Amino acid sequence: MAESSKKHKGSSSRSQRHSEAQDTLIPSSISSSLLFSSKEQHTRYTNLFSSYSIIDPKFIDMDFFYDESFECIQAFQNSNLIPFMSLKLLMYSELVKAFYSNLEIQESTLISEVFGIKMVIDQSLFYDLIQLSSDGVPFEGALDDDWKFDFSMHDARRLVCTNQADMTGRLFVSSLALESRILHYLIVCILLPRSSNLAQVSEENLIVMWAFHTGRQIDWAHVVRYRMHKALRLNAPLPYPLLVTLFL
Q1: How far apart are CA 214 and CA 75, in angstroms?
Q2: What tens-digit pLDDT sequence spans the chain (248 residues)?
Q3: CB under 8 Å to 142, separation ≥6 — which residues?
Q4: Full-model pTM
Q5: Are the C-beta atoms of residues 100 and 238 closer than 8 Å to each other?
Q6: The dihedral formed by the CA atoms of 149, 151, 154 and 160, expressed in degrees to the nearest 10
Q7: In the chain, how long is the greatest CA-to-CA distance?
Q8: DSSP labels, 50-92
Q9: Rounded to 5 degrees, what angle do the CA atoms 138, 247, 218 make?
């Protein structure tokens, strides 16, 4: 995907109007204690997850992206990512936190409980719900062994940056070509969401961008499940809240 000279009128305002999901409160008459079937569950939620932050969910407006002819959309289509990236549902913050508070992941199976209802989402059901392929490299943030022979940091930077960009030091979005800026934004807001330093291109982001540019396949179902598991660490921000709505 090369930098385009085409100007995208109104891209900022329209993408902002259509990219953020709405947070919805559960009725005030429902006590948070009713979310849990045991005192231990409620205590864990109160002491830990009730104060955790949720990464603001984003989704893409496909009509806008098709109208503007962004080349990265073809890469997303090739990876069967469009249904996942355009998922638009209500978000219930308390339910998201309760789901993560009770979440266990055992041999690729997600197990949680909300309102006393136990959910067991095995690998097959997980694929069906999130509509992501299991083909490709099970990426976990570092360069996979299958890619080490073909990947170099310098070449990856040259692939995504403008000709005038500095190839040394930290990499920021200001050095990226237009299409790569769009690609990076969608990676850090939807695919590998994070809550801070969105202007910095991390090594993880660069590897994923390189994979998209060169047609490498990633097991995105594994990526999502892995990052949900990582979110169980102390004070980690909670990703993919719209998936929790889907699971519920």
Answers
A1: 10
A2: 333 333 343 433 343 434 566 676 666 546 677 899 999 999 999 999 999 999 999 998 877 777 667 788 888 998 999 999 999 999 999 999 999 999 999 988 999 999 999 999 999 999 999 988 888 999 999 999 999 999 999 999 999 999 988 878 899 999 999 999 999 999 999 999 999 999 999 999 999 999 999 999 999 999 999 999 999 999 999 999 999 999 99
A3: 204, 207
A4: 0.85
A5: yes
A6: 160
A7: 60
A8: GG--BPPPB---HHHHHHHT-THHHHHHHTT-HHHHT----B-
A9: 15
Tokens 């948070």 label which residue?
32
Residues 190-217 as b/e (b if ≥16 CB within 10 A, e otherwise) read bbbbbeeeeeebbebbbbbbbbbbeebe
Angle between helices 178-186 and 153-160 (to 10 degrees): 110
- DSSP code, position 143: -
Place of tokens 């490299």: 137
Contact 86, 15 (CB under 8 A): no
**Pairing mode of beta strands 117-121, 109-114:** antiparallel
Beta bridge partner(s), residue 114? 117
Distance of CA 238 to the CA centre of its chain: 11
